[in-house]
Automatic annotation (TrEMBL), chain A:
Domain ABC transmembrane type-1: 132-322
Compositional bias of kind Polar residues: 1-13
Disordered, as annotated region: 1-26
Organism: Streptomyces aidingensis
A biological-process GO annotation: transmembrane transport
Major localisation: membrane
Gene Ontology CC terms, in alphabetical order: plasma membrane
Similarity comment: family membership: Belongs to the binding-protein-dependent transport system permease family.
Protein name stated in the entry: Peptide/nickel transport system permease protein
PANTHER family xref list: D,D-DIPEPTIDE TRANSPORT SYSTEM PERMEASE PROTEIN DDPC-RELATED (PTHR43386:SF1), OLIGOPEPTIDE TRANSPORT SYSTEM PERMEASE PROTEIN APPC (PTHR43386)
One Pfam short name: BPD_transp_1
Bilayer topology term: Multi-pass membrane protein
Places the protein is found: Cell membrane
From TrEMBL, chain B:
UniProt keyword S-adenosyl-L-methionine present: no
GO CC annotations on file: plasma membrane
Transmembrane segments: 101-121, 128-148, 168-189, 196-218, 224-244, 256-274, 280-300, 312-331, 367-385, 431-452, 472-496
Protein name: Peptide/nickel transport system permease protein
Species annotation: Streptomyces aidingensis
PANTHER family assigned to the protein according to its UniProt record, in alphabetical order: DIPEPTIDE TRANSPORT SYSTEM PERMEASE PROTEIN DPPB-RELATED
Superkingdom field: Bacteria
Primary site of residence: membrane
A GO BP entry: transmembrane transport
Length: 338, 503
């Protein structure tokens, strides 16, 4: 009797639990809490060290790039901008120093030009921050547009089957046939001069195919499950089945797709801009900066390193976040072997 | 199965035609292909514009131009670019260089990536696994053009400078030795003591080898010699017979060792033939080696061990042939290095223009030009393979049939190779098909960084000049490769995984 009374208040003990709780169990003395699905996911996500580190790194990059040179008309804390040139100090070498003096370094300080100056004396920190802002903006727009388009098309194809499915999937096949770099370069040449937001949008419209295939596969497997059949048998409408029963089950894969799409977009945009086909002047982006100064690699290597480091930081942190989200939503992938 | 293949083929052809139409219409609407001519002085402008309009059929609607191009493409006549140069000729030059790059990089990335992924899955949550997983994340996030430029600076220019006086500092030797020792030690699953011995042994051996190489100037004048060839061949024989059979003196190991000995002896016997051979002779020798290996496996293996014996012998023969080939290449390295002014690792183009040398020097020339672009492409695409194969391998190792295989007492080697690895490989076929498009895209960027005039410059030139024909030539090859690989992957998938219904 005592056992029943004790386990009645807990929710984690399932009927299939092989070990019935005994009085001597330490767990009996502990406070067993009921957790919702989203709380479980959040906990799993926060336990993923790489994902948390990625969140911190991405947050740092975003805050640094926006707060330093400001956003649009709002000024930031950094006193130089990316347009004006000044006299070259020490051939424009970076003045940033992170090694403290007691370790034989130059002390920890930013200096006049922490990332150095380019060949005409522009402050390279401000320029890199400007490029980071634009690259982040494009990557975010591209990632979201690609995911939304891909989800809509994949979900429609997976749920409705029949003619609609074959038409949508053939369209996807046609788009997969065209290498991303070719497709993206062409839309970037056609619409890239209309501003970075438009560039992000059109890049999203050519990179949704992976998401569509992923979502379709997931929806296909879910719509065969018994609970969908049950919903259908009591006369639930298609719209309600999609929103109430299918969407919550594919939301994990959609969120993971966003992160993958964003990190792919960072690299795609920078590659395009490097080839001279992405962001057009007067706007700049990290890839474009590298392209402009690629000949300076030997004489002014810092012009080459800083933008590259920021591209890697963004792509790497987003990838880690995506990995953490995948583990959080689908813990089966992460189980330990016995 | 046949119905499935035919239906798949028809769909693919249909999809590909739709894609060519889409690309052509977009390429024709990129902008004004006459922009540069409008800048000309008035007296030449009219003529030049009229001539190009005629050549590019700009007076006709886009749809008509597409069908004109399509009709030409059926006869494998890809038209001319806007200045009247035949695309076919440009494409033939470009294709060879790009295919070398793309195929080499893809194969290397698959082999290395799958191997790393499988190893890290088998040692899940070990330090090796964590290192591999983390590195995969970093490689996955690298911008290709950035890596390419870095390699150009450090792996080419600095390396060539270093080759002038190839001595290694003691701390570099120590670092490399520790890394290699750590890698080998982390492969073992034993107790701490054995692992420490393995670590110490490997580290010491590597350090001594590097120190000797550094002191004798081996890097400027490299070569392997009969001793290293023999050791490698025998080690390969041992390794492959363990892989395909077991660590015991059975017919499998016997036939592999016999094959290795034949290979070692023939490396001495054929020394004169291999001085400056025709390519066909080298291929002929390889075929001969494979035939001998298969024969040895057949006769030594006997009824019971025939299949594993033949496989092990063939693999041993290939490994031995590769070591002999490497040896000959390395012997020619000093002469080659002199002939290119002591800067062997090239940063520009797919080969030295008008190079004249022996068979080995020509091979070295292509290899030194391919090395850096391939390395850049492999680094970037390696990660997706290693992560993916780690995930599938982990999933497969948790399957019930793997537990059954263990339960019925199979050795772990057979469980992993026969039951887990084979099934784990199936999903990777799909990834290969997807990846071929990415690698083509990567090749465009890599070729730009390394100054190759190949498929990449065809595409980029076409886009910059608003000229559809070069773009279509690029698409015909890259899109064609995507379609073919996707089809092969689908068919292979259906063949490898009988659970897939073909209807």
């Amino acid at each position: 009797m005592a056992q029943t009374a004790q386990s009645a208040g807990t929710h984690t003990v399932t009927p299939g639990d092989p070990r019935p709780p005994a009085d001597s169990d330490a767990a009996q003395g502990l406070d067993i809490k009921a957790r919702t699905q989203s709380q479980l996911i959040l906990r799993r996500f926060l336990r993923h060290k790489g994902a948390v580190a990625g969140m911190l790194l991405l947050g740092f990059v975003v805050v640094l790039s926006i707060s330093s040179i400001g956003l649009g008309p709002i000024p930031g804390w950094w006193d130089k901008n990316y347009v004006n040139s000044a006299d070259l100090v020490n051939r424009g070498r970076p003045t940033l120093s992170v090694v403290p003096e007691f370790l034989g370094g130059g002390g920890m300080h930013l200096g006049e030009h922490p990332f150095g100056q380019d060949n005409i004396g522009r402050d390279y920190f401000a320029l890199t921050m400007r490029g980071t802002q634009i690259s982040l903006l494009i990557a975010f727009i591209t990632g979201v547009v690609a995911t939304v388009t891909g989800t809509l098309i994949g979900a429609a194809a997976g749920f409705f089957r029949g003619r609609l499915e074959s038409v949508l999937m053939r369209i996807t096949d046609v788009m997969i046939t065209i290498p991303t770099i070719l497709f993206a370069a062409m839309v970037a040449v056609m619409w890239g001069n209309k501003g970075v937001a438009v560039l992000g949008l059109v890049l999203g419209l050519v990179t949704w195919t992976q998401v569509a295939r992923l979502v379709r596969g997931e929806v296909l497997s879910i719509r065969e499950k018994e609970f969908i059949e049950a919903a259908r048998s009591v006369g639930t409408s298609a719209a309600r089945i999609i929103v109430k029963h299918i969407l919550p089950n594919v939301i994990g894969i959609i969120i993971v797709s966003v992160t993958l799409a964003i990190s792919a977009a960072v690299l795609l945009e920078s590659a395009l801009s490097f080839l001279g086909m992405g962001v057009q002047p007067p706007d700049t982006s990290l890839g474009r900066i590298i392209n402009e100064y690629r000949t300076a690699m030997v004489t002014r290597p810092w012009l080459f390193y800083w933008p590259g480091i920021f591209i890697i930081a963004i792509a790497l942190s987003v990838n880690f976040i995506g990995d953490g989200l995948r583990d959080a939503f689908d813990p089966r992938q992460n189980r330990v072997r016995d | 199965m046949l119905v499935f293949i035919v239906r798949r083929l028809i769909v693919s052809v249909f999809v590909f035609f739709s894609a060519t139409a889409l690309v052509y219409v977009m390429a024709a609407n990129l902008g004004d292909p006459l922009a540069d001519l409008r800048e000309l002085p008035a007296n030449r402008r009219e003529n030049a514009i009229a001539e190009r309009t005629e050549r590019m059929h700009l007076d006709k609607p886009v749809i008509v131009r597409y069908f004109l191009w399509l009709a030409g493409a059926f006869r494998w006549d890809l038209g001319t670019d806007r200045d009247g140069i035949q695309i076919n000729a440009t494409l033939e030059d470009a294709l060879g260089a790009t295919l070398q790059l793309v195929l080499g990089a893809t194969i290397l990335a698959i082999v290395l990536g799958v191997a790393l992924g499988v190893i890290s899955a088998l040692r899940q949550y070990s330090s090796l696994d964590l290192t591999v997983t983390f590195s995969a994340f970093v490689f996955f996030s690298l911008p290709l053009f950035w890596v390419g430029s870095l390699l150009k600076e450090f792996a080419a220019i600095e390396f060539n400078n270093w080759l002038a006086d190839p001595t290694i500092a003691w701390w570099v030797i120590a670092l490399i030795a520790l890394l290699i020792g750590g890698f080998f030690a982390s492969l073992l699953v034993t107790d701490r003591r054995t692992r420490l011995i393995a670590f110490g042994g490997t580290t010491a051996a590597t350090a001594v080898a590097l120190a000797v190489m550094s002191a004798t100037g081996w890097f400027a004048n490299p070569g392997l010699g009969i001793g290293v060839i023999a050791l490698t061949a025998l080690a390969a024989a041992l390794g492959f017979s363990v892989l395909f059979s077991a660590l015991e003196w059975n017919p499998v190991m016997k036939s592999a060792v016999i094959t290795a000995v034949i290979g070692i002896l023939s490396s001495v016997a054929f020394r004169g033939v291999l001085e400056n051979p025709y390519p066909i002779v080298v291929i002929g020798l390889l075929v001969l080696a494979l035939a001998i290996a298969a024969g040895v496996g057949w006769f030594v293996g006997g009824e019971l061990f025939r299949r594993p014996a033949i496989t092990a012998s063939l693999c041993t023969a290939v490994a031995t042939a590769m070591v002999i080939f490497m040896d000959r290449l390395l012997w020619s390295f000093a002469a080659y290095s002199d002939s290119v002014n002591g800067r062997p690792i090239a940063t520009i183009g797919p080969s030295t223009p008008n190079y004249d040398g022996t068979y080995w020097e020509h091979n070295l020339d292509s290899l030194t030009h391919l090395a850096l672009p391939t390395m850049a492409l492999v680094l970037v695409s390696l990660a997706s393979y290693s992560r993916y194969s780690r995930a599938t391998m982990l999933e497969v190792m948790n399957q019930d049939y793997v537990r059954t295989a263990r339960a019925k007492g199979l050795p772990e080697r057979a469980v992993i190779l026969r039951h887990a690895f084979r099934n784990g490989l199936i999903p990777i076929t799909t990834l290969v098909a997807y990846d071929i498009a990415t690698v083509f895209g990567g090749a465009v960027v890599t070729e730009t960084v390394f100054g190759w005039r190949a498929m990449g410059s065809l595409l980029l030139g076409g886009i910059q000049e608003r000229d559809p024909n070069p773009i279509m030539a690029f698409f015909l090859i890259s899109g064609g490769a995507v379609v073919v690989f996707n089809m092969i992957a689908d068919i292979a998938y259906a063949y490898l995984d009988p659970r897939i219904r073909l209807s």
